[in-house]
């Protein structure tokens, strides 16, 4: 039986690595989104080599672009089994009082509203599936339990708001059989992350060095993210975290749920999935 995945932000980094991994299984159908196909050279090449990859254009920070999803999805499928929301932005590291309005708004459009608006469009495709999994790539930067305090202000704040949305989605969609996850993918060696490390090296070498020492490759992150997604069953609604510091991070707990930490040690990092099993009152 085939499984259809819908992945945003597939041009590079974690998103590209996830698509690359999934494409190895011919039973997987992968719909991968990018903002501009002409710039997605590696992904286009991968799609040429793998007929189960289908690329569509969408800017998750633009509601009009999101409105085109139906026309682009329908030629490939009428059902989506798993939605992995990976597209995000993090372009500024500065103090709260120094960040201009447009930076805050752009980050909120892409990081918080983008995944929500895309999900609103994908809901009718997901509801047809027996799997119904939603995996939101979040960040430890959006958690009050983050062990390292940084100036990821727009990025961290918008991921925190996204976590709250996931918190509610897990509760609202549970009666329909959905499994909702918020996943922290680790400190990943992407182009954006490397630029961020350079900034920290200049401002706070201790933090910069710490981040570099624990960083993993996009391929390692993708493998771990997919393990968490695959671990979720129809009996478990999961808000998960991959912690590269050995810290289980709770991104949200609904009052009627009880938490159970499931730990799996891998070669590269610990995976912590916060499994939330619904209990009758």
TrEMBL record:
<protein>
    <recommendedName>
        <fullName>NAD(P)-binding protein</fullName>
    </recommendedName>
</protein>
<dbReference type="InterPro" id="IPR036291">
    <property type="entry name" value="NAD(P)-bd_dom_sf"/>
</dbReference>
<dbReference type="InterPro" id="IPR002347">
    <property type="entry name" value="SDR_fam"/>
</dbReference>
<dbReference type="InterPro" id="IPR052184">
    <property type="entry name" value="SDR_enzymes"/>
</dbReference>
<dbReference type="Pfam" id="PF00106">
    <property type="entry name" value="adh_short"/>
</dbReference>
<dbReference type="GO" id="GO:0016616">
    <property type="term" value="F:oxidoreductase activity, acting on the CH-OH group of donors, NAD or NADP as acceptor"/>
</dbReference>
């Amino acid at each position: 039986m085939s499984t259809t995945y819908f992945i945003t932000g597939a041009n590079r980094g974690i998103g590209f690595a996830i698509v690359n991994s999934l494409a190895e299984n011919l039973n997987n159908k992968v719909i991968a989104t990018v903002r501009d196909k002409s710039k997605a050279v590696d992904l286009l090449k991968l799609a040429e080599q793998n007929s189960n990859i289908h690329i569509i254009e969408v800017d998750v920070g633009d509601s009009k672009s999101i409105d085109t999803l139906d026309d682009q999805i329908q030629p490939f499928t009428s059902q989506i089994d798993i939605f992995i929301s990976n597209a995000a932005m993090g372009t500024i590291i500065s103090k709260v009082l120094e960040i201009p309005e447009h930076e805050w708004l752009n980050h909120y459009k892409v990081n918080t509203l983008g995944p929500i608006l895309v999900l609103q469009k994908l809901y009718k495709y997901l509801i047809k599936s027996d799997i119904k999994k939603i995996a939101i790539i979040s960040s430890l930067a959006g958690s009050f339990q983050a062990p390292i305090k940084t100036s990821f202000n727009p990025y961290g704040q918008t991921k925190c708001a996204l976590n709250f949305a996931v918190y509610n989605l897990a509760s609202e969609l549970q009666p329909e059989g959905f499994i909702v996850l918020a996943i922290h993918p680790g400190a990943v060696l992407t182009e954006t992350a490397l630029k961020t490390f350079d900034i920290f090296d200049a401002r706070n070498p201790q933090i910069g060095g710490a981040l570099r020492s624990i960083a993993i490759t996009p391929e390692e992150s993708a493998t771990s993210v997919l393990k968490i997604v695959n671990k979720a069953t129809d009996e478990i609604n999961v808000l998960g975290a991959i912690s590269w510091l050995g810290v289980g991070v709770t991104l949200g707990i609904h009052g009627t749920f009880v938490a159970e930490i499931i730990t799996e040690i891998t070669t590269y990092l610990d995976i912590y999935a916060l499994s939330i099993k619904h209990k009758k009152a």
